[in-house]
């Protein structure tokens, strides 16, 4: 990953966020007065697909303001790897191997030409549009029937489709999704959109292609080998996503079972649906079907582990990524078993990737710890757990919050100027990528050919 690539990427993000800020600050965009900082925060939250809100999207913004927010979400959700490719297509530069890694299409290219980059981006864009169209066809008629107004129901369905697939968590319903807690249809459709978006474009496209070829050549119920094999990246992403989803459901059911503020007084099938919905939201999106401030502290504490892991690489989710977490687990198993190689699904992971995964985790912990420390200084009236939860939610671009505004506003709505700036910094850094954003501060490093004498230290 080259330093110049990261600077272009950051400049592109900041430019779009600033344009969004200027648009949201215009009178036709809002119903209530909005400051420049509030507009900038909303624009950054939308562009980074976070979902932390300090203004009620359905009440404080007009339909024009909501359209701007949705456009920002769509641009940001297309993935910073794809955006980087688009930027280089526009300027006409050729990409090196490291720059192709930045846009996460190495496995899709056979050469260094921009034509290969363009085809990969077009495929991703096509997949996004098809998935969102299917989601809109499911949600729009349902919300029209629920709300009783064609125009409003149509817009609510479109916005929730885009925000769910892009893992943004914005809602233009005045009371949020709280009235839909027992609605099985809304819970399942939004959860599936969140999961698909969080898998990553390349993994989702590869799964679709694999299923199509298996159905075409072998049939669905045959045991013959498919003409294609899923890549290790996709297999790890699917496996870890499934495991984390199940663990997230158990996290909600175990600790919230007797909590009257959440799921204690509802039927068991609703508890399962709500647990599945919250599990899908933990790592990527920020929708609330009940007030998060009523959650037990144990639920919030363990959910923070899901938040820092995030979703799959090359998609709409941030965090350290499920693949990074899987590599760290495999590395730990290898060390315990006294093996030199890190093995996953019968494949050895290159040492440079293992080292990079460990580095990403360490840097993420440092970012989170430092940001929480400074927020605790500038927001002394906020309890530590909600503050840490808000910090990690911003850094992992999740959008969940323990704010007590009836589940419609985030905790940071009560933050002062410095607190909001810290949250904005976290959202942007989390979206661009931990390693990439860190390189902005330390600069590019030159390869050193000097080798030093080895010496052991005690562990």
Automatic annotation (TrEMBL):
Keyword Cytoplasm part of the UniProt annotation: no
GO molecular-function term, one example from the UniProt record: monoatomic cation transmembrane transporter activity
Statement: the UniProt record of this protein carries the keyword Membrane: yes
Subcellular location: Cell membrane
Membrane-spanning residues: 6-24, 36-54, 66-91, 120-145, 184-204, 232-255, 304-336, 357-378, 418-442
Topology relative to the membrane: Multi-pass membrane protein
InterPro entries linked: Cat_transpt (IPR003445)
GO term, biological process aspect, one: metal ion transport
Protein name, UniProt field: TrkH family potassium uptake protein
Species assigned in the record: Helicobacter didelphidarum
The organism's taxonomic lineage, starting at the top: Bacteria, Pseudomonadati, Campylobacterota, Epsilonproteobacteria, Campylobacterales
């Amino acid at each position: 990953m080259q330093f110049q690539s990261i600077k272009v990427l950051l400049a592109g993000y900041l430019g779009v966020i600033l344009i969004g800020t200027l648009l949201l600050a215009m009178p036709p965009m809002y119903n209530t007065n909005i400051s420049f900082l509030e507009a900038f925060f909303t624009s950054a939250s939308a562009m980074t697909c976070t979902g932390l809100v300090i203004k009620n999207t359905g009440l404080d913004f007009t339909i024009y303001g909501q359209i701007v927010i949705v456009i920002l979400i769509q641009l940001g959700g297309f993935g910073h790897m794809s955006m980087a490719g688009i930027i280089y297509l526009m300027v006409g530069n050729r990409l090196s191997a490291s720059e192709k890694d930045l846009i996460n299409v190495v496995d899709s290219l056979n050469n260094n030409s921009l034509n290969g980059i363009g085809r990969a981006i077009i495929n991703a864009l096509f997949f996004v549009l098809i998935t969102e169209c299917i989601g809109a066809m499911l949600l729009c008629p349902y919300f029209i029937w629920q709300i009783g107004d064609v125009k409003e129901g149509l817009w609510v369905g479109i916005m929730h489709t885009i925000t769910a697939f892009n893992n943004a968590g914005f809602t233009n319903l005045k009371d949020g999704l709280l009235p839909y807690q027992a609605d099985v249809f809304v819970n399942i459709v939004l959860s599936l959109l969140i999961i698909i978006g969080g898998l990553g474009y390349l993994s989702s496209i590869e799964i679709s292609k694999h299923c199509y070829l298996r159905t075409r050549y072998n049939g669905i119920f045959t045991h013959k080998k498919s003409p294609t094999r899923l890549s290790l990246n996709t297999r790890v992403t699917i496996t870890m996503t499934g495991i984390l989803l199940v663990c997230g459901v158990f996290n909600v059911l175990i600790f919230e079972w007797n909590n009257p503020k959440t799921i204690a007084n509802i039927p068991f099938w609703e508890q399962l649906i709500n647990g599945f919905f919250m599990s899908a939201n933990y790592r990527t999106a920020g929708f609330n079907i009940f007030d998060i401030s009523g959650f037990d502290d144990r639920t919030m504490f363990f959910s923070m582990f899901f938040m820092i892991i995030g979703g799959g690489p090359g998609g709409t989710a941030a965090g350290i990524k499920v693949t990074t977490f899987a590599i760290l687990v495999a590395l730990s198993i290898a060390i315990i078993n006294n093996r030199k190689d890190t093995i996953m699904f019968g494949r050895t992971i290159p040492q440079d990737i293992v080292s990079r995964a460990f580095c990403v985790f360490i840097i993420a912990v440092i970012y989170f710890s430092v940001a929480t420390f400074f927020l605790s200084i500038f927001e002394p009236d906020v309890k530590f757990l909600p503050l840490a939860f808000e910090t990690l939610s911003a850094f992992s671009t999740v959008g969940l919050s323990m704010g007590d505004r009836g589940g419609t506003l985030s905790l940071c709505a009560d933050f002062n100027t410095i607190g909001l700036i810290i949250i904005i910094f976290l959202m942007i850094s989390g979206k661009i990528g931990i390693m990439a954003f860190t390189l902005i501060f330390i600069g590019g490093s030159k390869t050193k050919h000097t080798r030093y004498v080895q010496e052991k230290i005690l562990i």
